[in-house]
Each structure stands twice: as C-alpha cells, then as structure tokens.
C-alpha cells in the first residue's frame, strides 16, 4: 500500500518507531460461472496475493476507507454486506526499517459493477478467482477469506500476532447485554 502523507509526516518526527495503525480489508465476492468468486490483488512490492486492504485516513470511517480502497486499487464498485472481524495483525518491519502494526477491520463485500483493473502502483495484477482456485497466499489472508465467506453471527475479535505472554488462540465472543 502506498504510504499516506499523514504517516510520512509522523515518520519525520518518530523515525522508525512502531506505529499502531487502523486498516480496512475487504473480501469482495460475486457469482461466477462455477460458483462464488473472490477479488484479489497482487501486491507490486512483494508479489503476494491478498484481499483488498488499506490504511484508514484521519477522519475516515473503516467502511468508507475500504470502499474507497476497492475502487482505487481495482476499479470495482462494491457494497458492504457486513463487518466480520476486527483483527490485530502481526507486527511488520518494512525494508526501510519502519515498524507498524495494524488493527484491521475485515468486511464482506458484494461486487456491484466493474471489471478488475490495476488502479494504482500498489498492485501489479487484480482479478476475481473461483474459491477452489485461489492463488498461493499467506495463511492470514486465507483465514480472512474463510471468515468472510462463512460469516459469523457476531464480529470476531482475533489476532494474527504471536506473543509469548498470552494464549495463542484467544477468541472473544460478546454476549448480548440484558
């Protein structure tokens, strides 16, 4: 993802110190000839296939951010079906030494119109894939797709990060308050 100006401004003050950032991602689905398809982008910086994702700009809501990112990165118009997961992503260290960690808002979205086309320099390819023919990708991206395709009844709180001082797989389910 291209680095937003507000992060570049922060980096001038804090250097490579860790940043806690809000992000949004989308599993955009449509009906294909052989069943459901999911929209993916191939990142230009590392060649990885991922669902559409991006940084939430200051003052922007997570749902607004992901609809903007979908259109900017792929030319596709989509609508949000539901928020399916809020996830603490694993910490990242970029080649330049910048460190960050994302609190991602994962949305299930429905394709409305448009065919995928690369819309910026963040991606080298974008396409819809049949669910049984997804390209190789990291386990965290497969989990994101699986969670969206089989959405929970309530938002899942999860973590892709590994910490030695906490339980590895902690899922929190909130009961209705009466």
UniProtKB/TrEMBL annotation:
One of its GO terms (molecular function) is hydrolase activity. The keyword Hydrolase applies. It comes from Cutibacterium porci. Pfam families: NUDIX (PF00293). This is NUDIX domain-containing protein. PANTHER family: ADP-RIBOSE PYROPHOSPHATASE YJHB-RELATED, GDP-MANNOSE MANNOSYL HYDROLASE. Residues 19-153 form the Nudix hydrolase domain. InterPro entries: NUDIX_hydrolase-like_dom_sf, NUDIX_hydrolase_CS, NUDIX_hydrolase_dom.
């Amino acid at each position: 993802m291209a680095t937003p100006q507000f992060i570049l401004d922060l980096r001038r003050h804090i250097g490579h110190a860790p940043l806690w950032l809000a992000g949004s991602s989308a599993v955009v689905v449509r009906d294909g000839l052989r069943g459901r398809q999911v929209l993916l982008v191939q990142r230009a910086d590392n060649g990885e296939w991922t669902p559409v994702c991006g940084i939430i700009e200051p003052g922007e809501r997570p749902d607004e951010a992901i609809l903007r990112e979908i259109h900017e990165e792929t030319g596709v118009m989509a609508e949000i079906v539901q928020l399916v997961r809020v996830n603490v992503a694993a910490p990242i260290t970029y080649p330049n030494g910048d460190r960050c960690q994302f609190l991602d808002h994962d949305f299930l979205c429905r394709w409305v119109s448009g065919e995928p086309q690369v819309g910026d320099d963040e991606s080298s390819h974008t396409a819809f894939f049949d669910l049984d023919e997804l390209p190789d990708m990291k386990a965290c991206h497969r989990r994101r797709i699986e969670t969206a395709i089989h959405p929970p009844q309530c938002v899942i709180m999860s973590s892709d990060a590994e910490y030695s001082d906490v339980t590895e797989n902690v899922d929190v389910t909130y009961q209705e308050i009466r």
